[in-house]
Amino acid sequence: MSKQEVSVFWFRRDLRLEDNTGLFCALQSKYSVIPLFIFDDSILDSLPKNDARVGFIHESLSKINTELQEIGSSLLIKKGKTSDVWQSLLQEFDVKEVFFNKDYEPYALQRDTTLCEILETNKTLSYSFKDQVIFEEREITKADGLPYTVYTPFKNKWLEKYKSLAPVQEYDTESHFSNFYKNSFDFPTLEQIGFEESPIKVKPHNLKFIANYQDIRDFPAMDKTSYLSPHLRFGTVSVRKLVNWAFHKNDVFLSELIWREFFMQILFSFPKVVTQNFKSAYDGIQWRNNEEDFKRWCSGTTGYPMVDAGMRQLNETGYMHNRVRMVVASFLIKHLMIQWQWGEAYFAEKLLDYDMSANVGNWQWAAGTGCDAAPYFRVFNPEIQQKKFDEKGIYIRKWIKEFDLGYGKPIVDHAMARDRAIATYKAGILK
């Protein structure tokens, strides 16, 4: 019996049916489209069994599957090494075309290169699309074609190009749903893929505070952030819809979205930044890397309330307010003299919105070792930050229950730590 001729759309960082570039193009195919998601063992094997992000992915896929069932289709869920899964699929179906949206992280680029080689051997056509950003790879460059390494000129060029297109095209995917492959694939439970429910959950995103974003974004006790970042990370929202909306609503909020693309472009152009300093002149810094100090930072027991509240919020919820992220990162690097890679790895493990490009970019910004970073001699004073942004201690008391019962002594004196950090940087920066 001959196998059925089909196209496949592979969901990855785009967990939505609405305004999905690759899916829209797949549904134009002359073959019916199997929607696919692969739980990749190469990623999952390093995660705890109750990882909240896997739970969120599963929940998002379940919503997609429910929508598809209403039109007689369903998601095909597979688990394993991606190359093995694809070899199996090519045996099971006569796959004529494969569509997917691009991912720019080093592992994803390598994975997709391998896939395209497998498909080419099978004489299967493959098509990839820009979807998680407005401008990708080499679309925003300097006049000489080189990537920007300073944010402001990147932003100016980005805005100039966006305004020439505004609004960016959105894709009416729903009008082509009739071309989905009609089948009822089994949808696995979280337990069937080897995971379990986490008490930590991704919150719904909320845009009602964006109008005065610039006035409220630095005050963690207000809890008036958008909670968009995990949804952008996993693509449950369309960045095109969001940017087209934000362009008319708030310039500061839009700038944060442009920062996201700036860091993605840096990661794509300079993949060494995943583990190495962007500025190699900082490679000679002699870090203390004290493991006991690191444990106290991780557990939120440094004796600095703003730092400890932030770390406890992270450990309990998977979130941390952006202003507080800057304080805790600066503290780890410049007060404790622990290199940024340690903090970056801990955030990667805990953050619901972990995105490699932003995480690496922001940690190197705090360390002074990245492109367009804070100067090395800028050392946040956690006590001043607390007075400026949580003057009444509302945020701190929310996360440090024992705060009013006599809080512990600081792990290190600020003035001494600041002087030590500046002297160590000065001595270590290569001329």
From TrEMBL:
Cofactor note: Binds 1 FAD per subunit.
Molecular function as annotated in GO: deoxyribodipyrimidine photo-lyase activity; DNA binding; FAD binding
Keywords: Chromophore, FAD, Flavoprotein, Lyase
Cofactor: FAD; (6R)-5,10-methylene-5,6,7,8-tetrahydrofolate
Highest taxon in the source lineage: Bacteria
UniProt record, GO biological process: nucleobase-containing compound metabolic process; response to stress
Species per Swiss-Prot/TrEMBL record: Flavobacterium caseinilyticum
Ranges of residues in domain Photolyase/cryptochrome alpha/beta: 5-134
Record-marked site positions (Electron transfer via tryptophanyl radical): 287, 340, 363
Residues holding FAD: 213, 225-229, 253, 256-263, 353-355
Positions of transmembrane segments: none
Record family assignment: Belongs to the DNA photolyase family.
Name used for this protein in its record: Deoxyribodipyrimidine photo-lyase
PANTHER family linked to this entry: CRYPTOCHROME (PTHR11455), CRYPTOCHROME CIRCADIAN CLOCK 5 ISOFORM X1 (PTHR11455:SF9)
Classification lineage: Bacteria, Pseudomonadati, Bacteroidota, Flavobacteriia, Flavobacteriales
